[in-house]
């Protein structure tokens, strides 16, 4: 009988999950001004989700492409193809590399949080899972009027400064008394 592999350490992140809606503008609008964005991107985000993806990436073996020079690595990962505003911001190649390296994980990563029963919530859960994050404790809140959290982000392209308006949505459906259950 073969000896089972040792159980990997568990990293659990309890935090927010938001869909980032990012507009890139030539300058921040003044009150009453309407601007046309240079470009727009939608990507998974939220402090908790971003941390969970970072932990998942760091707990996997790096693909061989990371051993090459910085510029080659950026080209291989499709730098500039994503918004950089959330977990999926690095582009599709990075996601594929993360999935390939999952077999050599040094830790398990789990996310605890809430999303709405909507397309944004489904995309957030799928995005986290694609990076190897366990989403079994990311609950879908199906209550009327409770949507997935959304962050409206306006980025001033010349300066890189941003302004963020957050609608927490289902993130606020998580109550402190619920924290005990995910530990067991």
From TrEMBL:
Keywords: Kinase, Transferase
Source domain of life: Eukaryota
GO biological process: phosphate-containing compound metabolic process
Domain Carbohydrate kinase PfkB: 10-60, 90-175
Compositional bias of kind Gly residues: 79-92
Gene Ontology terms, MF aspect: kinase activity
InterPro entries assigned to the protein according to its UniProt record, in alphabetical order: PfkB_dom (IPR011611), Ribo/fructo_kinase (IPR002139), Ribokinase-like (IPR029056)
Disordered as annotated region, ranges: 65-94
Record field: compositional bias (Low complexity): 65-78
PANTHER family according to UniProt: RIBOKINASE, SUGAR KINASE
Record protein name field: Carbohydrate kinase PfkB domain-containing protein
């Amino acid at each position: 009988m073969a000896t089972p592999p040792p159980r990997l350490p568990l990293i659990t992140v309890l935090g927010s999950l938001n869909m980032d809606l990012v507009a890139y503008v030539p300058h921040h609008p003044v009150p009453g001004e309407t601007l046309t964005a240079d470009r727009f991107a939608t990507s998974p985000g939220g402090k908790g989700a971003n941390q969970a993806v970072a932990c998942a990436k760091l707990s996997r073996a790096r693909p061989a492409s990371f051993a090459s020079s910085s510029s080659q690595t950026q080209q291989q990962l499709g730098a500039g193809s994503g918004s950089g505003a959330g977990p999926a911001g690095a582009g599709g190649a990075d996601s594929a590399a993360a999935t390939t390296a999952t077999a050599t994980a040094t830790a398990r990563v789990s996310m605890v949080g809430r999303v709405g029963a909507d397309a944004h919530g489904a995309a957030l859960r799928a995005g986290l899972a694609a990076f190897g994050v366990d989403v079994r404790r990311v609950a879908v809140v199906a209550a009327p009027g409770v949507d997935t959290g959304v962050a409206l982000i306006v980025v001033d392209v010349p300066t890189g400064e941003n302004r963020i308006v957050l609608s927490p949505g289902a993130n606020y459906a998580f109550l402190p008394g619920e924290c005990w259950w995910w530990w067991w």
